[in-house]
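Hello Y.,

Per our agreement to keep a running log of every chain we model this quarter, I'm adding this entry. I've kept the format consistent with earlier entries: sequence first, then predicted structure.
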Amino acid sequence: MSYVPSKGSRVPRHLLLALLNSNLLEWYFRLGSTNSKVNEYQFRNLPCPRLSYARSASDRCLADSALSAVRQGRLCEVPGILATALERPPFPLSVVRTILGATRRIVDIETSRGDIARNERSALAPEAQPYQDLINVLLYKMAGLTDEEQRGVEQRLEEML
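Predicted structure for the entry above:
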């Protein structure tokens, strides 16, 4: 099943999951958080990319190429495939569908781990981490961050944790 939003539709849970588990939103949240309690205003203040509801044959082809690369584990190719779609908001469905595909792959991998201790669940399975890394890269690009700025966010987040 692929995501095709309509105006006024809700954000799919897998997209919300991707956003909330991204390093970019983790970093942003920690900038203004002073404790472990999450208040509604903090949640509502989190940035969310602006998405396009337009559908086109070219965007469908772009999504098919990116999703094929995700399914085949050629994750390092995905940002290049989506480069033009990541240039400026609103971001097309090809980007959304790719993030959803990567998120579903993470969920599948994590589900296959079965019942494990909570402390083991705090880190992704090694085979799931590359998909999370891809989501992080796509979100950094959507935010317009340079490679240097991405490294800066990652370094700062590591210091915060």
